[in-house]
Structures are given as C-alpha cells and as structure tokens.
Write a structure and sequence with these properties.
Blueprint lengths: L5 H5 L3 H19 L4 H36 L4 H25 L2 H4 L4 H36 L2 H13 L1
Helix pairs in contact: 2-3, 2-6, 3-4, 3-7, 4-6
Length: 163
C-alpha cells in the first residue's frame, strides 16, 4: 500500500490553521461590533500570536526543510524560493493587519471605519495567500516521496517532525 504522504505524517499545520481561523472569526466579530474594545483586543492578541508562530514556523522551514530539499532535489529550488516569497508575503500581511488595528492610524487622522475596511480587505488577501502557500507546500511534500530514496525520506520525516 506504500507510505502515507509526508505531510499527513509529520508536517501538520493544524496549529497555524487554528490561529488563522481564530483571526478570521475575530475579524468577523469586528465587522459585527466594530466599537467593542474586547473584540479589538482579542483580535490584536490573535494577530500577534499568529505573526509570532508563522515567523517561527517559516524560519524553521527556510533554515531546515528548504536546504534539505534543494540539496537532494536541486530542481526544486524555484519551488522553495516561491514558498519563501509566500512566507514573506504572509508575514508582511499579518504585520500590516496588526498595524491597521493599532492606534497609529487614528493619530494620523484616518477614521476607524476606514481602518477597519483595511483590516477586512487585508485579511481576505492574507487568506488567499495562506491557501496558496498551503497548496504549494502540500504539492512539494507530496512529490518528495517519489523523488527521494528511502534513507533521504527517513531523514526528511525526522527533520519535519522537529519543525
């Protein structure tokens, strides 16, 4: 029957996806109750947690997974470069969302309503980029078992388990 795909075994993005869903739900709550300070605070906290965890996770991939993959399958270099670019875009989007939620735009005279529209639009773009990232990474991980020998695949599984 063969081995299960690598991502099903060792590279679960469940935690990150739960954080994305939490931000999504809080963004929706902000739409419904834009002046609720508790919602704004909870969203800011969720964005901070997501930003920190994404940055940590992406750094581990870029420092561990990507060099491993490129060393064994050099033709995958463009794919890992694209994933690294998506990492940068995702981190930038979360940073902009957090900044839009902060007080600095109010100090600049931008209305809170306009600020909130920036948050809603920014989160929609983030979700699209996150889905693209997940798809690209899943495709890469699904192809690796067909391209790596048994020893390299075992080493990859061990590496991913540490990420």
């Amino acid at each position: 029957m063969g081995e299960p795909p690598v991502e099903d075994v060792t590279h679960d993005h469940g935690h990150l996806t739960r954080l994305v869903f939490e931000v999504r739900d809080l963004t929706q709550a902000l739409r419904e109750t834009p002046r609720d300070p508790e919602v704004r605070t909870a969203l800011a906290d969720a964005l901070d947690a997501l930003q920190d965890d994404l940055a940590t996770h992406f750094a581990k991939e870029e420092e561990g997974l990507f060099p491993f993959v490129v060393a064994r399958v050099p033709t995958f270099a463009p794919r890992t470069e694209k994933l690294a670019s998506l990492h940068d875009a995702l981190c930038g989007a979360i940073s902009r969302l957090a900044r839009s939620l902060g007080d600095e735009s109010v100090e600049l005279g931008v209305s809170a309503e306009k600020d909130d529209r920036l948050i809603f639009a920014g989160f929609e773009r983030f979700q699209v980029a996150y889905a693209e990232h997940a798809h690209e990474e899943r495709e890469l991980l699904e192809e690796l078992p067909r391209r790596l020998n048994k020893d390299d695949l075992a080493a990859l599984r061990a590496l991913l388990a540490e990420l």
